[in-house]
Design a protein that fits this description.
With 287 residues, this protein is of the alpha/beta class. The model has no long low-confidence stretch (mean pLDDT 86).
Length: 287
Amino acid sequence: MTKLANFFIVGAAKAGTTAICDMLSQHPEVYCSPVKEPNYFSRDILLQQDLYYGYQGVESKAEYNACFSKAKSEKIRLEASVSYFSYPQVAERIKQEVPNAKILIVLRDPIERAVSHYLMDKRLGFVKVELETIFNNPKDYNQYFYQYFEQGTYFERCRQYASLFDDEHLLVLSYQPDVSQLLGSICSFLSISNRYNFESQKSNLSMVPKSGFTKAIYQNEKLRKKLKSYLPTSLITNIQRRMFTGQRVDISEAFRQELEAYFKADLQQLKAHYPLSFLRSRSLAEI
């Protein structure tokens, strides 16, 4: 009998999904797809949109099935594809193929999320223009605007999943910098032991190369992924510490107010349905 995923971390992007996946993969009751983001249920949309990232994921149903072919007696078969949160038809596709699937959505303050996503793309060499310029010129930078700002409007995306999956099958959480704080709730949701001692993971850190040589290597996607697959985690961490430095972008108070106005209506709707901690944060408390 073909085994499929029965637990999907669908997003949001830059809200700790990689770290959560990495930590859950340590649990003896969880099998995690070796393909980080299979994108099986969103493949046709991603190919049609021709995003600047290029399509990354499985190419067929057989290849998707192969992601779980080595699963044994694990109760949970996990995959994490943040593109599943972006497109409303994906929730219906998952429901149709895996009716009893469990869905995890992790949401982050949308301004923080936008900045984090922008810094990742800047680090990878995808974008060179300033974040404020993109916000003020959405038609000129439509793909960037979609990635950083439109993807931070959460309510309709959550509503689509909530219309198909009940509370037993859908969990919506607030992002925490230390994702280990979320694992108790996630394990309870999955009905697996929450007494497992997870080894802390920090994934997708916002770091930039210190030298042009390191930058050239890092921005070579194939080389970067190959090195990551061969090198032990401890060595990668040591390389990051020695050859990378922290990355940040400063947002003026005027630009922050523009962003708060942009997200305000969506967060009002979200606040009425979900007790998310970031809705009580300083910058977005009064909505």
